[in-house]
Here is the input.
Amino acid sequence: MAHLYRGELHRMKLWRERLDQTTNWAVVVIAALLTWAFSSPENPHYIILVGIATLTVFLIIESRRYRGYDIWRTRVRTIQENVWAYGLDPEGGLTDEHWREHLGDDYRTPTVKITAEEAIAHRLRRVYLPLFAVLLVAWLIRVTAFSAEPWLTTAMIGMVPGPVVVAAVGLFYAAALTVAFRPRTWHAKGELRAEDLRKRR
Here is the structure.
């Protein structure tokens, strides 16, 4: 069981590193786009909107990796809760009386435990909402501070009117906030979603 736990912990660590790599690439690409967008008043503002689209692609990739990471983390947490915790404190009982059966089924037929939407919500809350917020603020500054024209006119992209562009950006951010914060039952096992520093003190 010790070797099994160590192996699952190693697999979880590798998938955690894959998540971090995606985040690092997202930050680097966004930093490069913002640097170019503000390097000259002649550069188009819509390059920041391209950055939002690029960040969305990174979010989708990372959410898929997160679903894979959750498979290994679920196994690790199952062993921690029902083997190590029980061994250290038998009076606490078992978290899952049928954990052997459930873990055996998972080894026979590995399956993802969370939906794509929940994975996206986790990554939005943890990393991507602040990045999207930075891009939104940068875009608003770019369309208002670099031109004497009204900002709805400046927001125009080619033949697409400014109000249409602003409405599309607003709808995108509204959808992102809805996915991130709508009420739901979380299925990710062992995810830290709240912190109580005074607990057990």
Summary: Residues 58 and 194 are 25 Å apart (CA to CA). Helices lie at 2-37, 46-88, 99-108, 116-145, 151-154, 162-181. The two ends are 33 Å apart (CA to CA). The mean pLDDT is 87.
